[in-house]
Amino acid sequence: MSNHYDPTKDISPSAAYPEVSFHHHTDDAEFKKRVKKTTILLSVVTIVELAIGLLIYNLHKGEVNRDFLILLFKGVVCILTLLKAYWIVSIFMHLGDEIKNMIMTIIVPLLLFVWFIFAFIYEGNSYKNLRNTYDLHFKETTTPAKHHKSDKADEKPVEKSGKE
Amino acid sequence: MATTGTVHQTKWWSGGKSPFNMEYGKLMMWYFLMSDAFTFGAFLISYGSIRFSQNFWPDPNVVFNAFPGAGHANLPLAFVSVMTFILIISSVTMVLAVHAGHKGDKQGVIKWMLWTIVGGLAFLGCQAWEWHHLITGEHAVLADGKIEMIGQTMTGNPWGNLVEDNAALTAALSNTSHETLVSLVQSHDHTHSAKELAAMSDAQLKGMVNLAEMHVREKGPVAFGGYFYGITGFHGFHVFSGVIINIIMLMMAQKDVFAKRGHYLMIEKAGLYWHFVDLVWVFVFLCFYLI
Fold first, then answer.
1. B208 in contact with A at a CB cutoff of 8 Å?
2. ipTM
C-alpha cells in the first residue's frame, strides 16, 4: 500500500511519533464502503437477535415443553453477539489493520475467558444441584410450579434454569 | 495488510521505534481496554454463575416490557432495541470523526464528534428513564402471607413465580395494609380517584380487588437487582465518562489544539474508548435482555 503513499496528504508526521514506522492509509471511497457495510451488518444482526428474543418470549408463553428449542435459540443469539463483537473490534476499532504481534497481545489474554465462562457457569450449576439435593426448603420455595402436563416434571426446574 | 517490503526489513525490536507500529498512548489505551474487558467480563460471568445457581430467574421479557409514553402496554425488547441502535449509530459517527481526523478535516471532526455526543446523551437519557421506571413502578407480590407493592430495587424483586393459588391470595388480602389495598384497586379500577379509594374501608376495597387481573407474583431472586443496576450502572458510567472525554476532545478540536499539533490522534484514542463502550453494551444486551 505504500506504493500509493502520498506524503502531501499525510497530516500525521512521523516527526511527532517517531516510533511509528508507517501509517495506515485507506482511500476515502473504500473506507466509506467498509463503514457502510459494517453498519448494515450490525443493524441486520441486531434485528435478527431481537426477532429471536421475541421468539423465545413466545415460546415461554406457550407453556409447552420447548426448553431445548429455547436453549438452541439462546445459543444462536450468543454466536451472533460474538460476530457483532468481532466486527466492532476489527472494523470500527481497526484492530484488524494493526500488525499481527499487536493483535496477538490483545487476543491471546482474552482466551482466558474460555475457561472463565465455563468454569463459573459450571460452578453455579453445581451449587444449585447441591442445594436442590440437600436443601429441600430451597427446592420447594424456588422451583417454578408449572408444566404439570410434562411427564418429566421433576427434571423441569433443572432444565429451566440451565439457561443463559 | 499495510506492511510492505520496506517495512519487513525494519528492525522492529532494535529500539527507537514501536515494535507494534503504534504510538504509546494508543497502545496503552488498548491495554487499558483489555483490562476493562476483564472487569466487565468478571461482572457478567458472576451474574451468569448466580443465575445458574437459581431454580428460577425472572424472564427479561416480563421485566423490560415498558416504553416511554406507552403506559402499561406489553412491549418486550422494544425500548432496549432503541438504546442498542442509539449506541450503534453513535459508534458509526465516532468512526467518521476518527476518519475526518486522519484527513485533518477539523470541521468534519467537530461535526461527527457532536453527533457522537448527542448519541451518548440520548443513551444516558434512555437509561435514566429505564431505571426510574423499574425502581418506581410497583408490582403486587405475595410475601409472608400478605400482598405488598414493591418496585425493582437492590433489596426487592417483584418478578418471582406467578401465584396461581387464588385461595392463598384471598387469604392474604385480610393481612394486607390499607395503602396496598388502595393501590391494588387503583391499578385496574379507574372510576374512583385515589382520595375516594383511600376513604373507603378495607372490606369495601377487598370486594373491589380483581385478583384474576392482578398477576400477583412471589418475590424473585434478590440478586437480580444488584447485578442489573451494578452492571448497567457501571456501563452507564463508562458512557458518561465517554461523553465527557468526547466533549473535551470536541473543545480541543474547536480550539485548534490538534491542528497545531499536526495530528488528530487523540480523537482516535477517544474513539477506541467509545467503541469499547458500544462493545460492552453488545454483551450487556445479550446477558440481561436477550437470554
1. no
2. 0.88
